[in-house]
C-alpha cells in the first residue's frame, strides 16, 4: 500500500514518483511503500510551514493550542492499539513496548499542552527608574523535526509537543527505515483540528534529509540519530546559522557497587541492555561491577540473558524481537564477531540460531562479554543492539573514571544502598541522566539529553520549551526627555 506525505494540508506522493519499501523485520516482507521526497518536496513543506506560521498560527492564543494538543493526545490514546501494531510491524519492537510508548507519547502532548498558555515573559527593573523593560517568550518560527527508526512515536512526541505548544510550525521527517506511524499521525493532526501547514510530514532517504537540514528557511532543527548524521546536520545548519538540538548516541555505564541489592541490579542490567533489543541510545551497554561481586553479578546476568525468549514481537510471551533493519543487523553481527576475536570472554550469545519459529527475522541472541577492557571497541563504540560489555572496577574513584572515559555522555546507572555514595557518584558522572537503583525510566516532566558526542539541548520537561522559543526584550523610555545623542543611555 502506497503511503502519502502531508504538505500544506494536502496528502501528496513524492513529486518524482519515487518510493521506498517499508519492511516487517520479523517476517521479512514488504508491508507498504513510502514516498521518497525530492528536494522540491522538502522546499514545498518548508514553504507551507512558513505560510501557516505567518498566516496566523504564531498568534493563535495559547489556550487554543492547548485544546488542539489535548485533542491530539485523546486521539492517540483512542488508537494506541493500532499505532502500536503499526510500529511493531515497521521496526520489530515488542508490542507491549510500542503500546506503552503510544500512551507515553500522548502523556507528552498533554504535558506540553499545559504550558501553551503559560509562556510568560518578565518585567525587569533597570538602574533607571524612567525606563520600563520587559521580555516576551515567542515562537522561533519553522522547525525541522528529524527522528530515528527505533522509537518513532515517542521521539516525535519529544519534539512535536513542545514545538506546537510554543507556537511553531514544523516539518517532520522520520527515518526511511520506520516511517509508518509518523505518516499515520497526519490523520490525527487533521482530525484534531490543526490548521493546514502547521504540521507537515515528508519521508525519504538521504536526499530528503540533506535538503531539509540544509534549507535556509528553517529556524530550528531537532534531530535524533547517529553521531555521524548529527555532525552532518550540524554542519549543514551552521551554514545558515540555524540552531540545532541533537540527541545522539550513547555508551552508557551501568555501575553496580558491592553494597547494592544485587538481585535488583541484575534485573536493572538486563533491562538496560536487552529491553528493546538494546536498540536505544540510553542502553546500559557497559556494565561496571565491583570486583568482590563481579563474578556473581555477571554470571547472573548471563544466565538471564540465555533465558530471554526470542520470537514474534506481536506475541505476549516474546521478550526480544528482531533487529529493526538489515543494515543495523549487519552492524551488530560484525561487532559481536570482532568482540569474540578481540580477547573478551563471550559468556552467551554466540550460539547459532536454529529455531524455525524465528523464520526470516533479523534476530541476534542476547550477548554478554566478560573481562572487557574499557579501551576496546566493545566498550567504546555504540553497537545499538543486545550486546553487553562487563567491566571490573575496584573502588568508587575507578568506577567514575571508567564511566567518564567515553566520548559519550547520555545516560548512566548507579546501584548502591549507600545514600551518600549515590549522591557523590551522581554528581561526578558526566551524563545528562543518572538513574539510581533503576534504569531506563522516563517521565514527561523529566528533561532528557546528553553531553559530549551524545549531543546537546534537552527534550521533555520544561527545559524542552526553550529549544522552541526566542526571547524578545522591549525597553520603553518613560521620561519624556532626550539625552546626549552621542553617548549610550544606561
UniProtKB/TrEMBL annotation:
UniProt keywords, alphabetically: Oxidoreductase
GO molecular function annotations of the record: oxidoreductase activity, acting on the aldehyde or oxo group of donors, NAD or NADP as acceptor
One Pfam entry name: Aldedh
CDD domains per record: ALDH_DhaS
Annotated active site: 247
InterPro entries linked to this entry: Ald_DH/histidinol_DH, Ald_DH_C, Ald_DH_CS_CYS, Ald_DH_CS_GLU, Ald_DH_N, Aldehyde_DH_dom
Domain spans labelled Aldehyde dehydrogenase: 16-474
Recorded family membership: Belongs to the aldehyde dehydrogenase family.
Name assigned to this protein: Aldehyde dehydrogenase
Species in which this protein is naturally found: Actinoallomurus iriomotensis
